[in-house]
Design a protein that fits this description.
The protein is α/β, with parallel strands linked by helices and 424 residues long. It has ten helices and 18 strands. The strands form six sheets. The chain has a five-stranded parallel sheet, sandwiched between helices. The longest helix has 22 residues.
Length: 424
């Protein structure tokens, strides 16, 4: 994983100062994470990953490298054991878990909030602290929750571990096994949270190990919620759209090879993941001539659809030498955006979700929030081309494409791919 860009600011600086957040390993934390505020009176802050490819645009190789690092951390914990299955949490960690599973050569399944009407829900559980709590597991075909061997749960951040242990409790009651691993980029549990985690795991009667790329505790003051409310009121407004002429919109349909899954919503074996990677490369090969001459390409995944767009971005970077390529994703997550150097979420753009127009989807930043441009405001930074990869009809994506036009100096390219379906 590469370091933040030269001259970039510490994306945790503003919130750390306003809330008096203390980080036990500040240098490594700053290399991997930033901090923002939530628009939530019950929760103060949000850890924003620099390498996840969700809220911050990042080089696709760094996103895949972060997943590989998680996979390596799991391998170190397991020793010679081979995972029976890797499970990632939607929506934030769907791509992270997939890259980790690919590193481990394991089958992969992610939780979903887009429940398929013709596939049984094998398990469901709650994410207690989230704005969107429901998770469902819908494996089909060759991927089975009863697969022998350790089960690995991948999330981007471990704050208390309650979500992971809720999952373990649900799965262990029906498909018991000897060992689980909770894998994450950041283990930010306090000592009290670690003790509570160990006590509940013991009560479940099962071994639960934790594998983390970075362990760095965050200490919050007792009045953190009051500080957060004052901070939200005192920060500047979100950054406006770029001032330049909006780009056009071009729709690309039929680029994804027929019959190849686009996500692991219903599970993929290692061979299935290899097919997905080959399909993403085919999409990149078709797009590369269209993007020739671009001064910058942003590949934008859509909510749970993260890994395939990231691989498309990585293959585009290989095929377009000298062209900066970054990737990130849309999200359901609301945040408090503020155009302030040292703050991790400087802009938030909302639009009707392509899969459910009655619901709001968002994309944050759309430029590196740590960048310090010398000749223009940060808000005017934008890519030449924005490539949106969406598993929805082009007509349902049109409102999103229109909202994104100011963020593309040349073109918003809408690449529609099939919704992941279970194997026949």
């Amino acid at each position: 994983m590469t370091a933040p860009p030269t001259g970039a600011v510490d994306l945790g600086r503003t919130v750390s100062r306003l809330l008096d957040v203390r980080v036990s390993d500040p240098d490594r934390f700053a290399a991997l994470c930033g901090l923002a505020l939530r628009d939530n009176p019950r929760r103060a802050h949000l850890v924003v990953s620099r390498v996840l490819g969700k809220h911050v645009p990042v080089a696709p190789a760094d996103v895949l490298g972060a997943g590989a690092a998680v996979g390596d951390a799991v391998a170190a914990v397991l020793g010679g054991d081979v995972p029976g299955l890797v499970v990632g949490y939607c929506e934030t960690a769907t791509g992270l878990g997939h890259a980790a599973a690919a590193r481990l050569g394991a089958s992969y399944l992610h939780t979903t909030r887009r429940v398929h009407p013709r596939v049984p829900v094998a398990a469901a559980f709650a994410e207690e602290h989230s704005h969107a709590v429901a998770h469902a597991l819908q494996p089909a075909g060759d991927v089975d929750l009863a697969a022998p061997g350790p089960l690995v749960l991948v999330d981007d951040e471990l704050t208390s571990g309650r979500t992971a242990l809720n999952t373990v409790a649900e799965l262990h009651a029906r498909w018991p096994r000897e060992r689980y691993v909770v894998a994450t980029l950041l283990d930010a549990r306090t000592d009290a949270a670690r003790r509570a985690f160990a006590e509940r795991a013991a009560a479940l009667g099962v071994r639960v190990d934790v594998a983390a790329v970075l362990t760095s505790g965050l200490t919050l003051p007792a009045d953190v919620l009051e500080r957060a409310a004052a901070a939200r009121a005192g920060l500047p407004a979100p950054a406006p759209p770029p001032a330049g002429v909006p780009g056009g919109v071009r729709v690309h349909e039929g680029l994804w090879p027929a019959g190849v899954p686009t996500t692991a919503r219903h599970g993929l074996t290692a061979a299935g993941t290899a097919r997905l990677h080959a399909a993403a490369d085919a999409v990149a090969a078709a797009l590369a001539p269209v993007l020739a001459g671009s001064r910058g390409v942003l590949v934008l995944g859509t909510e749970e659809l993260m890994h395939a767009p990231t691989v498309v971005g990585a293959r585009l970077a290989d095929r377009l030498p000298g062209v900066p390529v970054t990737t990130q994703s849309t999200t359901r997550s609301p945040v408090h955006a503020a155009d302030h150097p040292g703050y991790a979420l400087r802009r938030s753009v909302a639009f009707p979700a392509p899969d459910d127009p009655a619901r709001t989807s968002r994309v944050h930043n759309l430029a590196d929030p740590a960048a310090v441009p010398a000749d223009r405001p940060w808000s005017d930074l934008r890519a030449d081309d924005v490539v949106v990869v969406a598993d929805a009809r082009a007509a349902d994506c049109a409102p999103m494409a229109q909202v994104l036009r100011p963020f593309a100096a040349r073109t918003v390219h809408l690449v529609t791919v099939p919704l992941a379906e279970p194997a026949p």
